[in-house]
Automatic annotation (TrEMBL):
Cofactor(s), names only, from the UniProt record: FAD
Active-site positions on this chain: H570 (proton donor), H613 (proton acceptor)
Keywords, ordered alphabetically: FAD, Flavoprotein, Oxidoreductase, Signal
Signal peptide: 1-20
GO molecular function term, any single one: oxidoreductase activity, acting on CH-OH group of donors
Name the UniProt record assigns to this protein: GMC oxidoreductase
Coiled-coil blocks: none
Family, as annotated: Belongs to the GMC oxidoreductase family.
One Pfam match: GMC_oxred_C
Positions that bind FAD: V119
Organism encoding this protein: Serendipita vermifera MAFF 305830
Keyword NADP listed: no
Domain Glucose-methanol-choline oxidoreductase C-terminal: residue ranges: 488-622
Length: 666
């Protein structure tokens, strides 16, 4: 891979000087001027949701929004911008917090790497570009657990507002396995138009796409021509967050760039929030946030918010900040010497993730996959020239074949197998203590399985090697298929490990703690083996590499899943939006229970998982949160106590502040 990466950087570097638009200032000076200003809203985290809600709040040109981001602003960075470099910035501290889970008991005590974006744009700068939606039933379930307005119909305008969809053209259809009509028949009333994030179809497909789609169809999974309509079941060619005009990743930093000249939209980068501060007195029995303490290069600062503080630090760090600020399970907080302000035991609980298991096959000689970028320098040179001149082709493309289906389908008509999975689930549910929220969620999840309304499993075909344990060989090409669980029954947690705000919290997803999750994944692996051994796909495939060919029994597959399980990095739920008596953390206006003006706006508020990759849903959450906050819905008390100070500070000239701590260039 190294050669293609360097080549790519050279190409982009030639076109646009790296970091050309960065303003370098002394960190301390900028942090001081940031903290001396008065903001209406302080938002922690310039990621997927944070930048979306910030842009919305600042759109009137007067509401003053300050955003604190630990990472840097990295425009014109090939490891972010070039779609074929996907994944290469993961586990690099310049872009990634590099979380690792705690030892996972059901994975032979392994830890699992869990990338999280640490850069302006958050995870949207390091993700795999897939841009899709879940099913109507799944979003409706959020309302079903007690959140008025948070259903498919209530979210659709917010989904649409965030992006600008460009459909598939004649040329893009070739080799995809899908027709233009498959992709463009869905009503444009449900797609995005005019929003900040550019979303389009790919322009390159490997030799595997067409036979893979045909073979999937032969196993009773049909092409879905309208996957964004609230029914993602079937096989389809998902859009990607790629700007077709430039061939570059389009991500949440677009909101930053668009607001660069606004004096009421100020982002402080290289600054890590450590605590939310509160006024000494409650209002109507609720605590009132006054601002945020943050650190730049070891020095602490305070910045005030006259209206609200909004946490958009993501699924692992929004609950961490709540706990550091005295909001959470009182017993747990006290054990770390933190005085509880609100005893809210749901904080950090209800962690749900999409666990995945990857299988890899060697393909027959001559079958062209994305491995060409690794093994064929002529191909790399051609691809780079094409990318440089017309901004399309393989280097401008992402993953193109998604399948969402039900367990009945993966059981392939074997009712014994299907009933066996259901009784595994029943037995486990009978023997497990559940929180009130879990019981409600499990009833919904069982309904989805039985009625086949929301797809329980996803298969993602990736025409390249390198996702499994076996090292890829030079001169060899591969096909990888990821089996991804959509509605896990396992529940994990994220909690602080100490009162030191710079120490990462403990992330414990408790993968496979429900035996149903293991059974469902194993069933998925077997289904994919059936697919791979069926024509016409089988004509392209050589030997299976992972798991080794001698893995054949259910037990072998179980062992493989335990030893190799990874995450597709869609954690949710740790500040769940739910009624307080159901262990909720935020109400349906996203305000923390017991607070007057502290909200959480990011993927941690999803109460329950959806069968989709998450970015489009998180953009929608940011959009909807902005509407709710602007409409003043249940805004309650604001922080009026300091409005005198505010007036005197309004004369301070607002500036766009950018702090660069990392100056090394690749
Ligand atoms: C490797 C990877 C691949 C993925 N692939 C896809 C995909 O193909 N398609 C898809 O739809 N989704 C994908 N996802 C998931 C999706 O990108 C995320 O679920 C979503 O973007 C999360 O948004 P968020 O707003 O909750 O958090 P983030 O976007 O992570 O934003 C949180 C921000 O807060 C900052 N922050 C955290 N703590 C602090 C602090 N204390 N002080 C200051 N700043 C702080 C972080 O640096 C970050 O910028 C992927 C995710 C990853 C990691
Ligand atoms: C941050 O601190 C380090 C020393 O710990 C120093 O070298 C660096 O210059 C500081 N950065 C800024 C921007 O002040
Ligand atoms: C922020 O609030 C604190 C505490 O109320 C106050 O001491 C400080 O002066 C305020 N800072 C600004 C810049 O208004
Ligand atoms: C997580 O584990 C990886 C691989 O062992 C390591 O490189 C990384 O530094 C770890 N992350 C942190 C924050 O320590
Ligand atoms: C996992 O770790 C626990 C506690 O450290 C230990 O008791 C157990 O034997 C370990 N299991 C395996 C499979 O290593
Ligand atoms: C939306 O995409 C179209 C191309 O499909 C482009 O012409 C238009 O300028 C884009 N609109 C915005 C607001 O980005
Ligand atoms: C910001 O201002 C600069 C200088 O006036 C201008 O070149 C640039 O286009 C502006 N950017 C935006 C997003 O308006
Ligand atoms: C709160 O934390 C304590 C200590 O970790 C734990 O024993 C208890 O079960 C937790 N309470 C709830 C309701 O989760
Ligand atoms: C390498 O790429 C070139 C250009 O696309 C192609 O003509 C050639 O067949 C490839 N070589 C191999 C061995 O696949
Ligand atoms: C890419 O384009 C630039 C000019 O924009 C040129 O200098 C460079 O040589 C090109 N690189 C390739 C690989 O075509
Ligand atoms: C496909 O569906 C048909 C009709 O429902 C059924 O008879 C057949 O067994 C299914 N085939 C597979 C491979 O699941
Ligand atoms: C159906 O599944 C059961 C349980 O996994 C297995 O024993 C049996 O061989 C399967 N039947 C067929 C026809 O594949
Ligand atoms: C689960 O409990 C229900 C009701 O108590 C019982 O009918 C059922 O047989 C149990 N199922 C299993 C698999 O234990």
């Amino acid at each position: 891979m190294a050669n293609s990466v360097l080549y790519t950087i050279a190409v982009l570097g030639a076109a646009t000087p790296v970091f050309s638009s960065l303003v370098n200032r002394a960190a301390a000076e900028d942090a001081s001027s940031f903290s001396a200003q008065s903001f209406d809203y302080i938002i922690v985290g310039a990621g997927n949701a944070g930048l979306t809600v910030a842009s919305k709040l600042a759109a009137d040109g007067t509401t003053k929004v300050g955003i604190i981001e630990a990472g840097q602003y990295l425009p014109n960075d090939a490891l972010i911008d070039v779609p074929s470099n996907v994944g290469l910035n993961n586990n690099n501290p310049k872009y990634d917090w590099r979380f690792n889970t705690t030892q996972q008991v059901h994975l032979d005590n392994r830890t699992v790497a869990h990338a999280r974006g640490k850069v302006v744009g958050g995870c949207t700068a390091i993700n795999s570009l897939i841009f899709d939606r879940g099913s109507k039933e799944e979003y409706d379930a959020w309302a079903e657990v007690g959140n008025d307005g948070w259903d498919w119909a209530g979210l659709l305008p917010s989904f649409r507002a965030s992006y600008n969809y460009t459909g598939m053209t004649e040329g893009q259809q070739i080799g995809s396995g899908f027709n233009i009509s498959d992709e463009n028949t869905q009503s444009h009333d449900i797609l995005g138009s005019g929003g900040a994030i550019q979303v389009s179809q790919n322009t390159y497909y490997s030799d595997i796409s067409v036979p893979y789609v045909k073979t999937t169809n032969s196993l009773n999974i049909t092409i879905n021509t309208a996957p964004d309509s609230g029914d993602p079941v079937g096989i389809y060619n998902p859009p990607a967050s790629i700007d077709r005009k430039t061939g570059k990743r389009s991500y949440a930093a677009a909101y930053y760039t668009a607001n660069l000249n606004k004096t009421n939209f100020v982002v402080l980068t290289g600054a890590q929030a450590t605590k939310v501060n509160f006024l000494p007195n409650k209002q109507d029995g609720k605590i009132v946030a006054s601002g945020v303490t943050f650190q730049v290069n070891g020095t602490s600062y305070v910045v005030n918010a006259t209206k609200e503080v909004i946490l958009s630090a993501g699924v692992f760090q929004s609950p961490q900040l709540l706990e550091l600020s005295g909001i959470g399970n009182a017993t747990l907080l006290q054990s770390h010497g933190i005085t509880p302000l609100i005893d809210l035991p749901g904080v950090g609980e209800n962690l749900q993730d999409h666990a995945m298991s990857a299988q890899m096959w060697q393909v027959k000689p001559g079958v062209k996959t994305w491995d060409q970028l690794r093994i064929n320098q002529t191909f790399v040179a051609e691809a780079a020239l094409q990318y440089n001149t017309t901004h399309d082709g393989i280097m401008s493309s992402g993953r193109s074949v998604l399948t969402f289906t039900s367990f009945k389908t993966t059981a392939g008509g074997n009712d014994t197998e299907y009933q066996g999975m259901l009784s595994t689930l029943e037995g486990w549910l009978n023997s497990t203590t559940q929180t009130p929220l879990q019981s409600k969620q499990y009833d919904i999840q069982k309904r989805w399985i039985n009625e086949e309304t929301a797809p329980g499993i996803e298969f993602l075909m990736v025409p390249i090697g390198g996702f499994t344990r076996t090292r890829v060989a030079n001169e060899t090409s591969y096909m990888t298929v990821l089996t991804v669980l959509q509605h896990p029954f396992s529940r994990g947690s994220v909690h602080i490990n100490s009162s030191d705000p710079l120490e990462l919290p403990n992330v414990d997803p408790r993968y496979l703690s429900s035996p149903f999750d293991l059974a469902a994944l194993v069933q998925g692996l077997k289904f994919i083996n059936k697919l791979v051994s069926s024509a016409p796909l089988s004509d392209l495939i050589d030997t299976r590499v992972d798991p080794a060919t001698n893995s054949t029994t259910t037990q072998d597959f179980e062992q493989y899943v335990r030893a190799s399980l990874q995450t597709i990095k869609h954690p949710i739920g740790t500040c769940a939006m739910a009624p307080q008596n159901l262990n909720g953390v935020v109400d349906s206006s996203l305000k923390v229970w017991g607070s007057a003006n502290l909200r959480v706006v990011d993927a941690s508020i999803l109460p329950q998982h959806v069968a989709a990759h998450l970015q489009s849903t998180v953009y929608a959450i940011g959009e909807k949160a902005g509407d709710i906050i602007k409409s003043g819905r249940s805004t309650g008390a604001t922080n009026n106590a300091r409005s005198g100070d505010v007036q005197s500070l309004l004369t301070v000239t607002a500036i766009i502040v950018m702090v660069t701590l990392v100056t090394t260039i690749l």
